[in-house]
Amino acid sequence: MTTDPERYDKIYRPRTFSEVLGQDDIVRHLRSLIGRNKLRRNLLLCGDRGAGKTTLARLYAAALNCESNLPDGSACGTCETCRDPNGGGLFEYDTAGLNKEERESIGALLAQARISKCRGSVKVIFLDEAHALDDDAIDLLLKEIEDDRHGFVFCLATTAPAKLGEALISRLMVHRVRALAPDTALQLLRDIAAKQSIDYDPKALQLLAAVKRNYPRDLVIGLEQISGPGDRITVELVKEAFGVDQIDILHAYGLAFAKGQFDRASEILSAWQESPLRKAEWIRNYIVSLYYNVVLGRDVVVDPLLHGAIREQGAVVSELQQRLGLTAGRDLREHWESLLQFWARHRLDDDAGAQLTIALFERQIDILRDDSPLSASRSPIVPVAPPPMVEASSDAMGCTVIRSASEYMSAAEVREIINRASFFIQHHGKLFNVALTMRPFAASEPEAVEAIAAFRRKLAGVLSAKGEDGWGGAILIDRSEERGVHARFTGHVPGVAEQFRPEFEQFLGECRRRASDDGDCEIQSEVAPAGGKQALRFHWKAVLDLCASLYEPGLDSSFASTRRGILDRLGVRVKDRRDPRPISPPRLSFIGGLTDEALQEASRFNMTFLSAYDDSAFDRIRDGWELKEAADRRREFNDRQTKFASLSRQFTGDQLKQEQDVLLGKWPSDAKFRLRSWPVWWQQ
Ligand SMILES: [Zn+2]
């Protein structure tokens, strides 16, 4: 172990814009300011400690003052100003580190900066931990920024922007500094290891990235802490250095409840030295991870830390099976899905809420007691089950908005998109015929997201105003290198494919007019070719386009050769895939015939849907079986509806309810039990 934990941090701190990893939006913005005659802008950088806020502020300040900037806009590092020992124009204050008087007299600090001599012509005031400023200091800053008498450039950094107040925030260019994407974090560790000739087990670096949550400074310091001369970095070493014994605790906990030792399970939980929030997250990820990797026997990374050990947790599942006398397949899966639904219903925001969730979960696993028949609590109508890890809600226009816990597009969201796109054909017998990309020209991510949400509401308005059944669409908020934050829409717009141009131009014109109420935007559109195989191909291409920014953790190059990811199985071509980029959820919503409400309505009389995706029938997903299913389904639906209606002519009140229940009981809620006129995939 070395004695100076900051050494790597200093060596590997980015010196130019091009060396900054994973903050493309901010870097592009700063470079464009420098490129446009060194525009001065007041900035607010939000993000966790170690995310790189200070580095970005220093790069901007140095670039503003440098006498011969590099081609990428960065400071040269060699001119007189760059080498000025007085910092060439940058004044850094750690606001939280100031004492009370200093904080109160921020004016005095500014006066000092004003008179102090330095070579740089632009004085940049960097206030780190700016949320520690009190109201008077914020007022003073507001005035200083408003008047701009002294030509300062202000750069504020904070982990808690809300504390700065709207008035100040509205006068700053706001940027969010994010954790690195896991692939980028891993690449950073690999690069440094190579430069320092450190020998390592690739899995150990993956684990380190997961422990350090992908913040560059923590990553490099963490790497330095565990690397000694001649040592190989192993998984064991990382576990030992950073106390990763959570997996053993989870295993003991899982085994206790599987064996029916509920008191023991509670003891383990309360002895566990973790915050309630982290405990709850661990348990949730553990349950979901077991579901995919053991119950379903698939290979899905829910949490990189857990994943390495999850297969060895099979004992938990087999103990449970044995105790409850379950068969391997369906029975256990249903029990487990009830646990998933529990976690899908509970959001984890803070410690107090998480503690409550854990208490409720302990009640929930009571259903895994021997004497609890799960089936008794089932309702006769089975709505589309919420998928694990995402949560759906309705907005004012009745759109279904999906919330995920992750900043990246997740497998659960892909599942929603694929399934609903399939359900839509099964019920309506119609294909999606339009694909739009809408890009608002907004200054910041929140503004762009708001503009897109407004566009979505208006799109829903335009479409529902047509007064026809059988329209619907999915909207994804995405982010890319070229387009910044933008929206992708695909769906069925009635009349468009058949009468093509005039109808569509009218629809598009309406979209444009509505969208531009909220500021400028660009809309690109594509319409399905008429009929047959081409129309089917258009539908699935547009749907898979929405999924193409899926981020599958763990599927980096070292895994790619040995297993196939979701996009591979769906047949999304490599050139059509987009670099996954973080965007604050919610980023996915459904309108019209794709909302929860519409799907529940369509599932009346136990008319549930088939999902080739959930059955892993990947070669059937895009082959168009839904068009035949739609005809079978319509017949059956009408038949059931007629029978239901005739009951209400014979009975009333409680008796009607009873007769209806009897009838529903005859119609199994498993969609596979209905008659089919086409070759199905589950009986081969
Ligand atoms: Zn220079």
TrEMBL record:
Matching entries from CDD domains are given as: AAA
What is the top-level taxon of the source organism? Bacteria
Q: Name residues in a coiled coil.
A: none
Q: Which GO terms describe its biological process?
A: DNA-templated DNA replication
> SUPFAM superfamilies in the record, alphabetically?
P-loop containing nucleoside triphosphate hydrolases
Domain AAA+ ATPase residue range list:
39-180
Q: What is this protein called in UniProt?
A: AAA family ATPase
Q: Which organism is it from?
A: Pseudolabrys taiwanensis
